[in-house]
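Worked Example 4.2. Consider the chain below.
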Amino acid sequence: GLERVAAFTQMRDELRRLDRPIVYSISEYGKTQPWTWAPGIANLWRTTGDITPHWLTVAGIIDSQADLADYAGPGGWNDPDMLQVGNGDMTPDEIRSHVGMWAMLAAPLMIGTDLDNLSPEVLDALSNEEVVEIDQDPLGQQARRVRVGEGEVWARTEVWSRPLDDGGYAVALFNKTDAPVDMAATLDEVGVPEGTWTVRDASNRADLPSTDHQVSSTVPAHGLVILRLEEE
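Applying the procedure from the previous section yields the following structure tokens:
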């Protein structure tokens, strides 16, 4: 029965009285669109109901974040709930997509699982420093979805892009379909200025040929490839 804005604001004020740094995370499951009122009150706010360790849930949550980029930035973050890698029955490609899209969304990377029993695939996804670096980029700009393919929300291709603090860009080629897809996007489509750009496949830790026109990759089923572009 509490009024959310007043209650969370009172808690913020009490935390500020303490002589220590505190990250203030709030959760009302996105019911009152906290991204519209929580900036300045909290450091992060849940944008969804509880996540579960299943691909359809993860894919649906990613979709729900597409219109929230304007509300996130340094000091205040959209929180699509904790990572479910290590739980459930997600495939290695789904695990990489889960971690990679949270990184593209500049979302908190909080792990809720048994750390003593993580598979090599989960450890590899969580320890990819190139992907984590994108998540923690100081510019703090959440990715925007610049293309949506045909099909249901859980079975289509998408392209996401975000600028980085060093003047580069991170581009995600996201394949929600049940088969591998050859994906490509022009520089103009993903908001990258004209010029020649080096391309680094951050997902697979590999250099790709430079480009002045488009980026491309073969993306596995339920998979993700994040490409980092830096101007030559």
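The chain has a mean pLDDT of 96. The chain is about 20% helix and 25% strand. Compare this with Example 4.1 before moving on.
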